[in-house]
Amino acid sequence: MGFGKINIWYAASLLISLVVAAPILTVFSSFFETTGNYSLILKNTFLYDYIYNSLVLLIGVLFLTFIIGVGCAYLVSFYNFPGVNFFKWSLILSFAVPAYIYAYSLTAFFENYGTAFSILKNLFGEGNYNTHIPKFDGMMGAIISISFSLFGYVYVLTRTSFHYQSQNLIELGKNLGFSKKKSFFKIILPSARPAIVAGLSLVAMETLSDFGSVSFFGISTFTTGIYNAWISFDDLTLANRLSFYLLIFILGLFILENFSRKKAQYHTSSKGGFKSKSVINLSGYKSFLAFSFCMLVFSISFLFPVLQMLYWTIIFPKHLADLDLINLFSNTIILVILSSCLLIALAFISNYGNRVSKSKFLEALTTFSISGYAIPGIILAVAFITFISWFDSSILGQFEMKSIKPIFIGSILGLVLVYFIRFYSLASNGIKSGYLKINYSIDEGAYLLGYSKFKTFKNIHVPYLKNSILLIGILLAIEIIKELPITLIMRPFNFETFATKAYIYASQDLLEAAAAPSLFLIIIASFFILITSKYILKD
Amino acid sequence: MTKNFLEIDNVTFTASAQNKVSNVSLTIENQGDIICLLGPSGIGKTTILRTIAGLEKINSGKIILKNKLLSSKDVHVEPEDRNISMAFQDNSLFPHYNVLENIKFGAERNKKKKKGLNINEIIKFLHIDHVVDKFPHQISSGEAQRASLARSLLSNPDLLLLDEPLSNVDQSFKEEIQVKLKQILTEQKITTIIVTHDSYEAFYLGTKCGIILDEQLKQFDDPYNVYHFPNSIEVVNFLNRGILIPAKVTGENSLESADLGTITGDFIKHYPKGSDVQLLLQPEDLEHDDQSNLKLEVVDRKFRGTNFIYTLKTVSNKLIPVFVHSHHIHQHQVDEKFGIKRPINIDHIVCF
């Protein structure tokens, strides 16, 4: 690293990456600590189950989200068919439904004497419908719940990438005699690869750290193992060690992707000019098929859980009347605003620091730090509390200074900081993906017009990436609204959000009572999506 | 202290192990001079511009502009603090601003300076007035290149760097732009370094030309000298405007060639009588004469509008280019015989 690379951007980027990497280092350090007896028991009993189930879940979810996300993005980006403009934004609404709420809906609808049974009974009278209604439980239920809740990551990022693809590329394929199929596999798909991989990475990390739906369906994965190690066996070191294995796996995925990408560049080449895409008008059965595919995905991913929750809310109105809506709403929004602003600002600074310094060390550290997304929220929260307690007693206690525990534990500040560590990957990956679209010559052109690094950042990058920022803001807002374990552990006393309220009811087996806060959670998240959809759709 | 406007002293320009130009020393003496750098693709011409602009660092030598040290092993003035503007070969327009807004970025840089160019005039002369409201992705690469040039010109820099500025510009108004560009640069006294692979463009625009070959600045001289007095066989081969034929020095002003017989003229460098040399023959060195008894076979004829270039085969199978005005009364077809005027007298004899 040259002396010139140590500038304020480098220092800021380094600091941010170190803060985010701190919990991962904590998890890594567990490798050298002694674990309890549970470790041995686990090795002889459930460990292979955890590995097998986590892998099956991961592969199933990645496959399904890839097919649904890329399929929908391709159809709405390259073709014109009835409802295409509606689907462009409505498909994003699936973000509003957390996997655990989807799991409740799936079970409630298909279970014996569930909603599906009631519908059939009302339509056709009494009958033995339970034997004919399919049951989506266990692994299948978890894969479906998580996939339909998360495919939006792949859809949004891939669609943005398709949107920026130049018509020149497609025409080039035609000139080379490529069929539509070959163009798709040789040109369209590879050039959207960074976006697809970014989307799938997020899905993978979310899947591996999901707790709500897998525990609901009773599947033993690494996350439930981590939870059991901590809650049931009080073995935090083992919990950390299991998280360590999970992290190694995620890092392996990152490295594999980086190697396979080699030196390929994914900038939109400006040489030869950019030509906007011309969409193909579909008609006849092709138009019907495209419409049906998108409609099916929209109905399954969004309409289905919303209607199920609405149905419960309507038939159990007492639970709705018991909710302190204003308090829940303001708490949720405060957390969203504080956390999103902090995340976007710091992820932007860190990415720009990486870009300016071109330091391989910094890039490696950033890649390492964002793998913290795979650490289940529960572990992050515990690691944070452990660290603050250690700092308080070991450092501040030595100098008889005032305790900082009340500032960071059981406070909004502590909660926001743990959110920051948890969701930094989402913000950073999104901004990185946006930066891939800006050629370095744009920066150099600005410097040569007398723009400082800060002015280039403020006047060139921020305005150019404002749509990306809004998109990331939405993704973060939705994630924070849905986030459960961190909020449960880190929140101030009596501080409730829609997510914690829904969870508390569900954990008491009051699924009907959980419907109202779940429904409001979905409505707020949907609102965020709707008010910003024009930026997502802006051509 | 140096009285030169720009001084590059023993600098090695490095982009990668394969792409570097070593130990370059050159000076621009006066403000307003235009330097053109010529060389094959991938030789490192752009790296030189990027380094002068401050986008790359150096490990040896120094770069001084207007008596201010910009680059050395220990010093690196950031690009934004150099008042050097560069128009890139590829489109470097800001994609989220329209063409006019992009161009205004240049004008705003030096708005405090009273002296300046008129934005509308620049837009008009570069033929981009019809695209000012469009965004970079909506215009052609040639238009983007001209918009980038306009932005750089309007920034009124101490030093302007142009990387293949007209490579994507239509031939129909390329010459017009060249003329106007030279006029503006000269009138405004904008010191400029232009990288190009077009030797005609370099000879027209440049006060001086530099030829970069084999990781070195092979020749740095005014365009007339570069063309007529190339200092190495490599430069001759790169310019591709003549051929080397074997000859023997027979006197103070004469030599003998097996292909063309006796040739007279002034040697630009002394060679002892009896020396075996390689004589540079350029298309304008030989004259056509139908009555001559020195007849060579035509193997190719290129029509260049104002002239023809005939390629003739000698007895030793050397291919010699000969320039003939296109209004010459008759034309010679391939395989016909073509007369060369004797005695052959060349204004200046260049040998190696």
Overview of the structural elements:
- The complex is a heterodimer of chains A (539) and B (352).
- Helices cover 75% and strands 1% of the residues of chain A.
- Chain A has one domain: Orthogonal Bundle (MetI-like fold), CATH 1.10.3720.10.
- In chain A, α3 (47-78) packs antiparallel against α10 (193-209), α3 (47-78) packs across α12 and α10 (193-209) packs antiparallel against α20.
- With 539 residues, chain A is mostly helical.
- Chain A has helices at residues 8-29, 38-44, 47-78, 84-90, 99-110, 115-124, 138-163, 167-175, 180-191, 193-209, 212-216, 222-231, 236-261, 284-315, 317-322, 325-357, 360-370, 377-396, 405-408, 412-435, 440-447, 453-464, 466-482, 485-490, 498-507, 511-537; strands spanning 79-80, 280-281.
- Chain A is globular.
- Chain B is 22% helix and 34% strand.
- In chain B, β12 (254-257) and β13 form a beta hairpin.
- The longest helix of chain B is centred in the middle third of the chain and has 17 residues, at 171-187.
- The radius of gyration of chain B is 24 Å and the shape is globular.
- Chain A binds chain B through residues 2, 4, 166, 270-276, 438-439, 441-442, 444-453, 460, 463-464, and chain B through 50, 53-55, 57, 76, 78-80, 83-86, 88, 90-96, 105-106, 109, 136-141, 144, 148, 151-152, 155.
List keywords for this structure.
heterodimer; A: 539 residues; mainly alpha; MetI-like fold; two-stranded parallel ribbon; 26 helices; 1% strand; disordered N terminus; B: 352 residues; alpha/beta; Rossmann fold; OB fold (Dihydrolipoamide Acetyltransferase, E2P); 2 domains; six-stranded mixed sheet; 8 helices; 19 strands
